């Protein structure tokens, strides 16, 4: 049987003082501990149960020494476990950070960035803003140069004037394709005309296949996978218009089919370039790695 002893009223008053000191020590530990990772002083104070007073007014408590030892708890932040952290400017854990949000009119969504829901009006402006970008002008010149070197469609010849004609035709091709795909068929078919970069969490082969098949596969406004009807119909309509400005020699079924296939293949190449463009620019130190 554990030994017990009787506290007088003076002893009871002393126990009350001890409790007040305990509270003061806890408050001091909270106020004096610097923010950030530190060793927080923790009081090791066992609970003391005080029994009701006896008939003579004295108290009975367990005969146990009260230990006011301060022991250090390493790697604890002030406020841990209380729903807040006292570390000013401390970064949140990776899994709790919110992903950045892409601009509403962005046509290409980087990996790890949240895309906003878009309306038919938003798709219209996405298409208009994407018509004449530096990347688009680069595509016009590349298409014209490729046709000039191989004397391919449209067959304007190989002299200096032919390059200018091919450049103008490439600009008309890109303009009509963008208008038909983004501003007309994407809203009508409720498809998302944006390209979502997969990013480095996927392998090279996966990313290449993904990018190269986006002219055929897209997502709807609700996020479901779907045949890219907007792009296929838009490119078909733009190809049909080439009969109004291509040379007479190219206005036939064979060349029209070849033009349509080349346009779809060119878009697949464009998506592959977009998929890896940020990686290449980071390797060249042209952009800062996130």
Architecture overview:
This protein has 2 domains: 4-91, no CATH class; 98-283, no CATH class. 46% of the residues lie in helices and 12% in strands. The protein has helices at residues 9-32, 120-129, 134-150, 160-189, 204-212, 229-241, 253-283, and strands at 4-7, 37-43, 59-62, 70-77, 108-109, 191-192, 195-196, 217-220, 225-227. Strands 6-8-9 form a 3-stranded antiparallel sheet. A two-stranded antiparallel ribbon has the order 1-3. Helix 3 crosses helix 4. The longest helix has 31 residues, at 253-283. It starts with a strand and ends in a 7-residue tail after the last helix.
Class by alpha and beta content: alpha+beta
What's the helical proportion of residues? 40-55%
Q: Please give the domain count.
A: 2
Main beta sheet: 3 strands, antiparallel
Q: Uncertain spans, ≥5 residues at pLDDT below 50?
A: 1-13, 32-50, 72-92
- What's the mean pLDDT score? 78
The N- to C-terminal Cα distance equals 67 Å
Strand residue content: 5-15%
Number of helices: 7
Shape: elongated
Gyration radius, in Å: 36 Å
* Side-by-side strand order of the widest sheet: 6-8-9
Q: What series of H and E elements makes up the topology?
A: EHEEEEHHHEEHEEHH
Number of strands: 9
Topology summary:
Elements: E1 4-7, H1 9-32, E2 37-43, E3 59-62, E4 70-77, E5 108-109, H2 120-129, H3 134-150, H4 160-189, E6 191-192, E7 195-196, H5 204-212, E8 217-220, E9 225-227, H6 229-241, H7 253-283
Parallel strand pairs: 5-7
Antiparallel strand pairs: 1-3, 2-4, 6-8, 8-9
Helix pairs in contact: 2-4, 3-4, 4-6, 5-7, 6-7
């Amino acid at each position: 049987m554990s030994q017990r002893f009787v506290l007088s009223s003076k002893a009871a008053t002393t126990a009350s003082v001890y409790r007040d000191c305990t509270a003061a020590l806890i408050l001091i530990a909270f106020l004096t501990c610097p923010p950030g990772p530190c060793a927080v002083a923790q009081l090791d104070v066992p609970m003391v149960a005080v029994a009701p007073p006896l008939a003579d007014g004295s108290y009975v408590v367990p005969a146990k020494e009260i230990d006011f030892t301060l022991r250090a708890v390493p790697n604890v932040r002030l406020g841990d476990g209380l729903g807040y952290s006292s570390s000013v400017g401390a970064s949140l854990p990776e899994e709790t950070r919110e992903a950045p949000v892409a601009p509403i009119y962005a046509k290409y969504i980087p990996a790890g960035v949240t895309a906003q829901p878009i309306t038919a009006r938003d798709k219209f402006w996405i298409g208009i803003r994407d018509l004449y970008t530096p990347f688009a002008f680069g595509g016009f010149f590349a298409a014209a140069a490729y046709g000039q070197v191989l004397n391919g469609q449209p067959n304007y010849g190989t002299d200096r004037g032919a390059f200018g004609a091919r450049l103008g035709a490439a600009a008309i091709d890109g303009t009509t394709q963008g208008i038909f795909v983004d501003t007309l068929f994407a809203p009508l078919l409720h498809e998302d005309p944006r390209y979502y970069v997969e990013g480095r969490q996927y392998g090279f082969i996966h990313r290449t296949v993904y990018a190269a098949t986006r002219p055929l596969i897209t997502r709807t406004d609700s996020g479901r996978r779907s045949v890219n009807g907007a792009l296929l119909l838009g490119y078909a309509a733009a190809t049909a218009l080439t009969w109004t400005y291509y040379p007479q020699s190219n206005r036939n079924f064979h060349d029209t089919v070849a033009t349509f296939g080349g346009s779809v293949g060119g878009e697949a190449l464009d998506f592959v370039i977009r998929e890896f463009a940020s990686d290449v620019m980071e390797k060249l130190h042209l952009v800062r790695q996130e």
